[in-house]
Amino acid sequence: MIEVKDLHKSFEGREVLKGISTVFEDGKTNLIIGQSGSGKTVLMKNLVGLFEPTSGQILYDGRDFVAMSKDEKVMMRREMGMIFQSAALFDSLTVLENVMFPLDMFSNMTYRERKQRAMDCLARVNLVGAEKKYPGEISGGMQKRVAIARAIALNPKYLFCDEPNSGLDPKTSLIIDDLLHSITNEFNMTTIINTHDMNSVMGIGENIIFIYEGHKEWQGVSSEIMTSTNKRLTDFIFASDLLKDMRDAVTGAKRG
Ligand SMILES: Nc1ncnc2c1ncn2[C@@H]1O[C@H](COP(=O)(O)OP(=O)(O)OP(=O)(O)O)[C@@H](O)[C@H]1O
Ligand SMILES: [Mg+2]
Questions:
Q1: CA-85 nearest atom, ligand 1
Q2: What's the confidence (pLDDT) of residue 254?
Q3: What is the distance between the alpha carbons of residues 124 and 127, in angstroms, rounded to a whole number?
């Protein structure tokens, strides 16, 4: 569980995060949604320690991350898996070497054990057979799956994904969503996903946090979005007339 308490972040006096408080629970796929520029990436970078909050607390299962020393933060980072917007693979390493990389860096395992662990992770994301390829030789969806395999190699407790579906077609996005969702349940991880993707919101949103101009405007589950009367939320979600009509059809049917 990750608890965020009154988190503020400013850059040169300009406040981007304006006091965010929330809880991300274990075994749940937590989604952060909000308009471009609302502060989703800045929030995630604070959570993983790439940015220092201006004020506020981040508690990892009760451990105060912000107050930790540099060394303690490095130790905590080993419990976190990260998947960035671009898959951020090493182009000069094979798929297998990419997945082995965190194990090479941070584990005491033998080469055989590391290779086995990496192959197990590749199997989990359905990529057996691709281990000798280079990132440039595989599709964007496969690259994302390699990034997921690499992120789970060290068996993290916490998994962070910034826009995992960007650049993917809707069908491939669904595969990635299902994978993140089932891995989260399987390993009882605390997973946080930044997304714009409404399919993700409706499909895997067990706990959804809507950020609006740097503050938490709304929090709930996907089924509650349909009936929410929060105008900022509905304007964001049902941005098109088509989506509005679909919502009215669904809620009308429920009433009817
Ligand atoms: N290193 C930085 N220095 C100064 N300002 C920054 C920095 N990083 C982000 N910002 C600002 O913080 C605000 C929020 O940016 P952020 O990247 O978190 O938005 P976002 O919600 O992730 O948007 P998107 O959906 O486009 O990814 C923006 O106005 C951005 O310019
Ligand atoms: Mg972003």
A1: 27
A2: 53
A3: 8
